[in-house]
């Protein structure tokens, strides 16, 4: 899973974000990527559960939780890099978002991860 997370993080670019998030993403590169990175990780590891919680700005933050309760947060740096608390205590388990814009971002990221290094690391 660690290798998958590294590959997902390497594919997080402003092109996956709505334009309104680009400026903030420049100074905080993980900003705005929590949903599609978490949903992509869940795609590769279906046993994971998606969670979300509101942060100090009342924005939703998304992460995964393993069957043993371990939090797997690919974009936690968007909070730790600016010394803000992660909203885990306010979190709840949720289903994937299937609005077209969110779904398309997840599909693009899944495709990019699958194409990484010609799929040499996948064990299907």
Walk me through the structure.
- The protein has 5 helices and 4 strands.
- It is of the alpha+beta class and 124 residues long.
- It has a 4-stranded antiparallel β-sheet, covered by helices on one side.
- A hairpin with a 5-residue loop joins β2 (60-65) and β3.
- The radius of gyration is 14 Å and the shape is globular.
List the topology elements.
Layout: H1 2-10, H2 22-27, H3 34-44, E1 49-54, E2 60-65, E3 71-72, H4 77-80, E4 92-94, H5 100-115
Antiparallel strand pairs: 1-2, 1-4, 2-3
Distance between the termini: 14 Å
Oligomer: single chain
Order of strands in the sheet with the most strands? 3-2-1-4
Shape: globular
Distinct helical segment count: 5
**Which percent range fits the helix content?**
25-40%
- Quote the beta fraction: 5-15%
Low-confidence stretches: none
Question: Compute the gyration radius: what is it?
Answer: 14 Å
Biggest sheet record: 4 strands, antiparallel
Mean pLDDT: 88
Q: Give the H and E element order.
A: HHHEEEHEH
**Number of structural units classed as domains:** 1
User: What is the number of E strands?
Assistant: 4
Output the structural class. alpha+beta
What's the quick description here?
This protein is α+β, with helices and mostly antiparallel strands. It has helices at 2-10, 22-27, 34-44, 77-80, 100-115; strands at 49-54, 60-65, 71-72, 92-94. The chain has a four-stranded antiparallel sheet with strand order 3-2-1-4, with helices on one face.
């Amino acid at each position: 899973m660690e290798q998958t997370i590294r590959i997902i993080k390497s594919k997080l670019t402003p092109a996956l974000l709505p334009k309104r998030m680009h400026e903030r993403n420049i100074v905080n590169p993980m900003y705005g990527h929590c949903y599609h990175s978490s949903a992509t990780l869940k795609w590769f590891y279906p046993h994971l559960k998606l969670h979300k919680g509101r942060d100090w700005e009342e924005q939703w933050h998304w992460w995964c939780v393993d069957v043993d309760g371990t939090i797997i947060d690919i974009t936690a740096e968007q909070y730790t890099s600016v010394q803000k608390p992660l909203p885990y205590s306010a979190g709840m388990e949720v289903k994937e978002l299937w609005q077209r814009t969110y779904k398309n971002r997840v599909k693009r990221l899944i495709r990019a991860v699958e194409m990484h290094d010609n799929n040499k690391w996948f064990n299907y």
